[in-house]
Backbone:
């Protein structure tokens, strides 16, 4: 393995971005495993990719548009029955703390 | 009985769907404790559905081309009112309020859903050991893995629990377990089968396909589940010709390439030997066989292990404890999100979410995700030149036969290497399938992978039928 | 300090510095479709919570987005009306966690938006550059319970996803506005355009039009932009003006006192009339944009775009020009007002039907603020004609007009019903003569050239006739009597 590609701190930052909380043991383990993977994928650094466009979709599928016609809606009771916590026909959550970013 | 045989018998009134379903439910009840192919067996619902089909037959109407055929569904296909867990704690109790398009199509064709099968959590894995509900065992040898991520579906078909199962294939998740369990598994061309109702792992790579014991069954099922769907923007909008009609057309004169990048380095000798036997069978059926090369295919894993986690990190953000599934409470919504996700996801899912988040994050996008998308272009270009000279390509499906349970769980990289032969085709969107072809030195099944250009399913199935007949 | 003073326009500037406010606006408008941007549940304001939802708008596992053709068409209409280039575009995922976002990412257009490089012309003739106008989906709504409904003090929150997935167009203007008043004109003009092309109902109060303002200040003559703050929660044209004025003042005070402006997002509080810091630039979220794999690039055909262009209705700017041409002596503010009230067609038809342009416009501007009701252009033209002919006084005409607005019909009939008949000339002459005799003193001053006394005599006539007399005719009569 070459130089370290991802640090423990970066790993912790990424976990926080993804809303995951890791124990110290997990953080150590995942840092090593992510580093190993990033080291493997570094093989592509040898390729000359400058002139190539990125591929978002493998096949040239035509654009699909939908007519603006109303369709079925979900039954609210059925949906809220699956919710961890519902109140007054809505989904209840703990305080959100701030506006959306 | 094969699916084709069951449907013929039920449609003609020779057998009742109910007797077929009861028989399979008995086999499941007798055998699944050892295999753990199913997360859920929907016995009552299956019997009721079978009775409906028998009623239709009695009333003189045709229930469809899969009349009375028991089908097992991977637990990432949405079934209305029936738990759809993705083998994850985070969705443990979730019963979707809608059916996936393929589930509707199967229903309309007269098939009977018998249960939901175990899988690697959110389809991330190659051994079905990453299930929150415990691993599935390989019916050929219960000390071995069935492959993954659709291991439960492969095992269900191999164990005779159902003649048909559906799985999903993002990097080999249908083909590799099919090879390891000794059944037929198909990854159709991207866009041929609607993904609506398939819980997403990596949207640009995921594709639903069948597991069956015979090539003809796989063709029959594919013909039912393929076709345009107005609910999936990536669905191919033109209907394609049925695959079943040309199965027996043979391969005389077809140009078959052995893809060197996926057939040499790292392939176990007994697996390589079975590939050689398959090649000889194709030659004796009239195909011309030569070595083919798509040099960039070796970079498939690297591109895959950036693109798939990147898409997954976004697709799995919605499991936040607000609308459905698990919630672990906290003093604020961000805390609740974090507690829920930390408790609800297993290690492999967390790892991939982290890889993907990293690959997309500010400052790293170009180096990782952006670069992987360009490698994807390179691989597509290399395959495009190969298709100028070949009609089909072959390789092993998996570098080895089924490996022992627990062997690779501590080493993610070793597990990722299991996908080396199957990943390139997901990146290119092309069709591929695994056909069982003999056994390795350990007596376990070996699969041969047949690859075709986009929408090359008819030709691919003809070659599969030839291989099947040559055994 | 001196280094900073060189790089930050206006930092530590003397108290008598003349300042310029620089404003750039981002306007979100809900598109007037029947269904959501990516699914078939209804796009409708209000309704019982969580009843306008489907698997896609609720972000259920396995659901997939399919783009609404009408939303694309409306976006193209807006792009064309704003003189944008319509280009192939790509949807991207903007990733962030928030409970009102069902998928915890928003599908939006990022580096390849559908409309780019346009401009909007204010009624003053000034052109404001439009950077882009792109499509994206709306979020749900969160209500905060407890703590007086304030987000930071709430005990918990409730989420309604009815609005989730409603199509939005986000119109990003260049920072070329130079005052709160110009910003108001810009939003007002943009709203008129959105309404005119049928893209949006433009209701700020219902949240279908939402404005974020980027405000900075600099000394007049500076060629560099100051550090800007983004102001959110501006819910009416009035608060837009107030918020910008407050924010500019705040920045000027801060700079004058030697403090640099920190780039921030700020929240406009309607009640205390101030902006409050929400978060600083350093806390900017890493959105991890990437192309949405579930959608394909959007590439509207040239034919389709041209078809939409040809079907585009007349835009406010063109309508103003048409009306100004028909009523050349009327000032531009009144022309703009008539267009804003969508009464330009009525005015044009009345003028071309023979109505005197000035009088027609006077009625539209002064007497039809609450709408034209049952009034037809023919009736308006005829009414104006009656005024011109001296058959009705201005006061009477206004009363007749109210009747026409209320119930339609012809002004002749309405005038008759109201008992307005033109005064007989003899009757008027004898009234004027008796008033001259009665007010000999005023009369002699009038004859000596005191013009103010015209008003006195006209007023007396009006009083005696209860407004039935025509003011012009009285003036003429007074002048002829003076000899």
Residues:
């Amino acid at each position: 393995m070459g130089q370290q590609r991802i640090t423990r701190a970066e790993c912790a930052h990424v976990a926080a971005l993804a809303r995951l909380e890791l124990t110290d043991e997990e953080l150590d383990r995942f840092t090593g495993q992510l580093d190993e993977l990033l080291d493997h994928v570094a093989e592509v650094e040898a390729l000359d990719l400058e002139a190539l466009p990125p591929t978002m979709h493998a096949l040239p599928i035509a654009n699909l548009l939908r007519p603006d016609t109303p369709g079925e809606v979900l039954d609210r009771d059925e949906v809220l029955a699956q919710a961890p916590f519902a109140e007054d026909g809505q989904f209840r959550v703990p305080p959100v703390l701030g506006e959306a970013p | 009985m094969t699916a084709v045989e069951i449907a013929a018998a039920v449609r003609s009134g020779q057998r009742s769907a109910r007797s077929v379903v009861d028989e399979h439910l008995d086999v499941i009840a007798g055998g699944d404790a050892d295999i753990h192919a199913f997360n859920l067996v929907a016995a009552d619902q299956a019997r009721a559905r079978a009775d409906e089909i028998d009623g239709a037959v009695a009333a003189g109407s045709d229930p469809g081309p899969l009349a009375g055929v028991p089908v097992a569904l991977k637990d990432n296909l949405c079934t209305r009112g029936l738990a759809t867990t993705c083998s994850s704690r985070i969705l443990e109790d979730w019963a979707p309020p809608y059916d996936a398009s393929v589930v509707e199509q199967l229903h309309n064709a007269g098939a009977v859903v018998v249960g939901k099968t175990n899988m690697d959590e959110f389809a991330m894995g190659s051994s079905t050991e990453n299930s929150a509900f415990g691993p599935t065992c390989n019916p050929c040898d219960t000390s071995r893995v069935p492959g993954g991520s659709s291991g439960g579906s492969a095992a269900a078909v191999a164990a005779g629990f159902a003649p048909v199962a559906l799985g999903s294939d993002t990097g080999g998740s249908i083909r590799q377990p099919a090879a390891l369990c000794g059944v037929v598994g198909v990854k159709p061309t991207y866009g041929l089968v609607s993904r609506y109702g398939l819980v997403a792992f990596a949207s640009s790579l995921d594709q639903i396909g069948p597991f069956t014991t015979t090539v003809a069954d796989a063709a029959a099922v594919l013909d039912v589940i393929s076709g345009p769907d107005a609910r999936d923007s990536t669905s191919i909008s033109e209907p394609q010709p049925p695959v079943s009609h040309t199965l027996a057309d043979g391969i005389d004169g077809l140009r078959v390439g052995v893809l060197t990048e996926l057939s040499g380095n790292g392939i176990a000798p007994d697996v390589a030997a079975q590939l050689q036997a398959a090649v000889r069978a194709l030659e004796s059926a009239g195909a011309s066989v030569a070595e083919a090369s798509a040099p960039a295919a070796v970079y498939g894993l690297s591109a895959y292990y950036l693109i798939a986690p990147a898409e997954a990190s976004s697709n799995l953000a919605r499991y936040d404890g607000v609308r459905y599934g698990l919630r672990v409470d906290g003093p604020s919504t961000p805390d609740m999100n974090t507690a829920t996700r930390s408790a609800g996801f297993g290690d492999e899912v967390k790892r991939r979410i982290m890889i993907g988040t990293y690959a997309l994050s500010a400052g790293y996008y170009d180096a990782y995700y952006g670069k992987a998308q360009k490698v994807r272009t390179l691989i597509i270009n290399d395959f495009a030149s190969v298709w100028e000279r070949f009609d089909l390509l072959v390789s092993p499906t998996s570098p080895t036969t089924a490996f022992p349970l627990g062997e690779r769980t501590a080493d993610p990289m070793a597990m990722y290497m299991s996908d080396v032969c199957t990943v390139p085709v997901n990146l290119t969107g092309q069709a591929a399938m695994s056909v069982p072809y003999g056994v390795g030195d350990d007596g376990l099944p070996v699969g041969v992978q047949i690859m075709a250009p986009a929408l090359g399913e008819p030709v691919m199935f003809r070659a599969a039928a030839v291989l099947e007949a040559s055994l | 300090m001196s280094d900073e003073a060189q790089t930050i326009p206006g930092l530590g500037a003397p108290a008598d510095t003349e300042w310029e406010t620089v404003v750039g606006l981002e306007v979100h408008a809900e598109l007037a479709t029947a269904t959501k941007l990516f699914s078939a549940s209804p796009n409708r304001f209000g309704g019982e919570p969580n009843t306008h939802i489907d698997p896609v708008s609720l972000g259920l596992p396995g659901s997939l987005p399919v783009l609404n053709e009408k939303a694309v068409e409306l976006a193209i209409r807006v792009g064309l009306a704003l003189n944008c280039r319509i280009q192939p575009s790509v949807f991207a995922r903007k990733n962030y966690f928030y409970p009102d976002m069902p998928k915890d990412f928003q599908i939006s257009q990022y580096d390849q938006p559908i409309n780019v490089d346009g401009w909007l012309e204010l009624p003053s003739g000034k052109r404001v550059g439009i950077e882009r106008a792109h499509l994206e989906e709306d979020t749900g709504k969160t209500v905060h319970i407890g703590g007086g409904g304030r987000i930071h003090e709430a005990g918990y929150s409730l989420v309604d996803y009815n609005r989730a997935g409603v199509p939005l167009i986000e119109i990003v203007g260049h920072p070329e506005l130079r005052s709160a008043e110009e910003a108001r004109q810009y939003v007002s003009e943009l709203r008129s355009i959105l309404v005119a092309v049928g893209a949006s109902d433009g209701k700020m109060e219902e949240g279908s039009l939402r404005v974020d303002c980027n405000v900075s200040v600099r000394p007049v003559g500076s060629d560099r932009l100051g550090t800007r703050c983004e102001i959110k929660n501006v819910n009416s044209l009035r608060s837009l003006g107030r918020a910008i004025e407050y924010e500019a003042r705040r920045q000027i005070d801060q700079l004058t006192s030697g403090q640099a402006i920190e780039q921030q997002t700020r929240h406009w509080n309607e009640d205390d009339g101030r902006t409050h810091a929400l978060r600083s630039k350093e806390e900017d979220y890493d959105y991890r944009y990437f192309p949405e794999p579930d959608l394909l690039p959007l590439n509207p055909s040239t034919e389709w775009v041209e078809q939409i262009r040809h079907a585009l209705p007349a835009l406010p700017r063109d309508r103003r020009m048409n009306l100004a041409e028909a009523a050349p002596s009327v000032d531009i503010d009144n022309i703009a007002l008539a267009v804003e009230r969508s009464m330009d067609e009525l005015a044009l038809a009345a003028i071309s039907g023979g109505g005197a342009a000035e009088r027609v416009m006077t009625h539209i501007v002064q007497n039809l603020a609450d709408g034209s009701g049952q009034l037809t252009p023919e009736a308006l033209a005829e009414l104006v004609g009656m005024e011109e002919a001296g058959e009705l006084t201005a006061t009477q005409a206004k009363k007749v007009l109210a009747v026409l607005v209320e119930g339609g019909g012809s002004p002749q009939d309405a005038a008759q019903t109201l008992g307005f008949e033109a005064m007989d000339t003899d009757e008027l002459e004898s009234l004027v003569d008796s008033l001259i005799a009665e007010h000999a003193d005023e009369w002699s001053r009038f004859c000596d050239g005191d013009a103010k006394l015209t008003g006195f005599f006209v007023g007396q006539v009006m009083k005696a006739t209860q407004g039935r007399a025509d003011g012009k005719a009285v003036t003429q009569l007074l002048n002829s009597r003076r000899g």
In short: Residues 1-5 of chain C have pLDDT under 50 and may be disordered. The first helix of chain C runs from residue 2 to 7.
